[in-house]
Amino acid sequence: MQYRKLGTSNVMVSPICLGTWEFGQSPEWGSGKVAEYEQVIDSAIDAGVNFIDTAELYGKSEEILGQLLKGRREKVVLATKIGGYQWDYDTMRSRLEQSLKRLQTDYVDIYQIHWPKIKGLFHGTCPSNMEDEDYELIASSLAKLQSEGLIRTGGVSNFRLHHLMKFRNGTFKVIVSDQVPYSLLWRAYDDPNMVEFCKSRGLNYLTYSSLAVGLLSGKYDKHTALSPAQKANVLFLEPIFSRALKVVDVVRDIANEVDASPSQVALKWVIDRELTASALVGTRNAKNLEEDVEAVNLHLTREQTDRLDKASKEFWNPIPSEIEMWTWDNSNANLDRIGIKT
Predict the structure, then answer these.
(1) Is residue 335 assigned to a domain?
(2) CB atoms within 10 A of CB 93
(3) How many domains does the chain have?
(4) Residues 37, 42, 46, 49: is their CA dihedral positive or negative?
(5) Are the C-beta atoms of 143 and 174 separated by less than 8 Å?
(6) Alpha carbons within 13 A on the beta-carbon side of 206
(7) What is the CATH number for 24?
(8) Per the domain annotation, does 205 fall within a domain?
(9) Residue 338 counted as domain residue
């Protein structure tokens, strides 16, 4: 396994990161067996995956990780996220201490802001957009937590270009990553201005939904039962879903050409993107993880990569640029509001 430097930090991460939302025993993914999670972590570490991501909002994920990483915490780069919209130092320090207690560690490598304020997000529970003070609080709180040794570095998640531009330049000595949805089926963060800004600040992407919540695995069709999390994802809503399956067909064709799985082809495309430091994969199955890790060693020709890009862009171009992947409200009125015509 070859490791990559994360942004301007000295943190080195594997190109594959184990995402653990599915470990949380939460309604979005349902319950699972902790013994199976342990097998996944064992397989990850054995394969050289040194990066594990979680969040305080992922149900019991932090607590379960704390149990399973006991005695081997030093083998992994551990990232978690603060939920909600209070970013003053006292609040962030208190919330981080709670995460550290659940994770059974005295520091995390990357502490991330889970979501920016986006008015109306999540059933309208977010009352306003980001304000200037929010950016100052995030920057100063993360810097202080870093100076105290409670975090090695900081990051954000789901922050668009207009968000990032509000931070002072010096902030990017502490904030070194943006964890974003990014895949062949989600290109919102490919905007050239966004890419250039991140390059100029030394900011990397940590990509989540790298397999589009499983859709790019090639295992889904119109008759497949979906989890609550997938039902809340716009990619599984018509007419987007039928169009997405055309991209999956191209992924499947190339997988047959290179004797690989569709998941490996889709992950390799993400891993090789210019800003990607690590691609998150979520699974509760050790064999699935072992398959995903092999994507690192896969070779795609320029012609194959071009075909993936072409299919991906044809799918993405009609999608409204400001749409978020998670709707949580599939009413016709809301879908019409965000530009999805049912």
Answers:
(1) no
(2) 15
(3) 1
(4) positive
(5) yes
(6) 34
(7) 3.20.20.100
(8) yes
(9) no
DSSP labels, 166-219:
TS-GGGGGTEEEEEEE-BTTB-GGG-HHHHHHHHHHT-EEEEESTTTTTGGGT-
Q: Which domain holds residue 128?
A: 4-214+260-299
Q: Per-residue confidence of the chain (342 residues) as pLDDT tens digits?
A: 899 999 999 999 999 999 998 888 877 777 788 999 999 999 999 999 999 999 999 989 999 999 999 999 999 999 999 999 999 999 999 999 999 999 999 999 999 999 999 887 776 778 889 999 999 999 999 999 999 999 999 999 999 999 999 999 999 999 999 999 999 999 999 999 999 999 999 999 999 999 998 999 998 888 888 888 788 888 988 888 999 999 999 999 999 999 999 999 999 999 999 999 999 999 888 999 999 999 999 999 999 999 999 999 999 998 887 788 876 665 666 666 655 654
Query: Is 229 part of any domain?
Result: no
